[in-house]
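Feature request, filed as a ticket because there's no other form

It would be nice if the structure record came with a short human-readable summary line next to the tokens. Right now we just get the raw output. Example of a typical job, pasted below so the devs can see what we mean:
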Amino acid sequence: MQLNKTQLIRKIFIPRQHTLDRYATEAETLQRKVLERLVEKGRKTLWGWEHGFDAIESYDDFARSSDINDYETLKGYIDRMRHGESNVLWPGQVKWYAKSSGTTNDKSKFIPVSPQGLHDTHYRGGADCVTWYLRNNPESRLFDGQALILGGSHQPNYNLKHSLVGDLSAILIENINPLVNLIRVPKKSTALLSDFEQKRDCIAQESIGRNVTNLSGVPSWMLSVLTRVLEISGKAHIDEVWPNLEVFWHGGVAFTPYREQYRRLIPNPGMHYMETYNASEGFFGVQDDPSDPSMSLMVDYGVFYEFIPVSELGKEQPVVVPLWAVEKDRNYAMVITTSSGLWRYLIGDTVRFTSLRPYKFVITGRTKSFINAFGEELIVDNAERGLEVACCETGAEVREYTAAPVFMDEHGLCRHQWLIEFNREPSDLEAFADSLDRALQTINSDYEAKRYKNITLQRLEVIPARRGLFEDWLRRQGKLGGQHKVPRLSNERKIIEQIMQKTLSPVPPL
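Raw output as currently delivered:
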């Protein structure tokens, strides 16, 4: 009888399962303890000295210690850390920096990743994904095979010894426990290749003959790898290549546009999908219940959470509340304090809580990824749900998209312009545009009001993009592969005009 390694290893995760159960009743207590630990560490830093951490005894004291910060506020401190200075935002010297998409003034952000943050947040998040999965799937054979984990690449940080800058995934792979490399593919040198197209081929070649039981990565880039696996293997479906594949942990972009493509590639009805919220700044959430699209907020990691109602954004002194003061079904911008030295940091994502015992949420968009050119307040969550309806009604499949406003054309008309790369084009593009427009009106009352009788806003315009257009744009930006993604919504036209090249004729607005 073949040894079931998973049944032996799952016992290691049982104590953590009991701890996770406390999330439903002790979240506030756990969060207050996290804040105490972070402040105690912060007292040993330049930031803590400048902001009076020695006098902090409560959450209210902490909230008064500084305003909400963005990257521009912390950039000078981070640059000092990158040049080797110790005890700036976090005790000791921080040698790893996750390279993230830039700000108005910089091409890239460099997010510090301390040893504490690596272990008490990022790696713990990965372990908890397994914890919940094994609880939900008692017959799993997860550890009887290998994990296919996609990663980015890294480069030296200035000239500091052992200091790295790169994709978070590359930093995680570089520092992972060597024992984990025994149960993952591809090999480390392949995983860290900087040329994504070369990496994709190498991953496919290395993994085809392995017993892959689980996948981890960004849906768009994993889809590209799986397509290459089928091309090389000559198989029609992924479960013919890896018959024991059982779960895909995905994050970075919404899964909705890719769901049908994955079902077609992996028709096995027993395949599982779990969403994670793992950003350069920290690991924040896991979809613990396969029947519920919400994610559980991870409240006992090295992250303390605060939230700003979206309606307060842009105010000089916005209302800011701790986790225990949030309300259900309200849109919030998330603020984090982490064990890597981000203090009251506005991460840029917006969330909506669907449950408070335990705290469960969905990501609704980005604080800078929206269209509100005419008072319509369209967010990414609206866009994803609208596209899902339009695809269902027309049989289309969306591969990538971005959208922006047209403020006024030569006829004096205003509308939203959607540039969409289809994996399967609708037979009637106008019907798709109509369906999307109707769905957005149903989902978003502000959009519906602005569309009333075409007075303020005309029907949206859909431009079908040629195959590979978005990938070509990412390549030109040096962002092909890794955790990079296409911006979905923008309140101005810079991004959409950068991306647009040769496309098919647009569907004219009505």
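Something like this underneath would help us a lot:
The radius of gyration is 23 Å.
Residues 10 and 134 are 7 Å apart (CA to CA).
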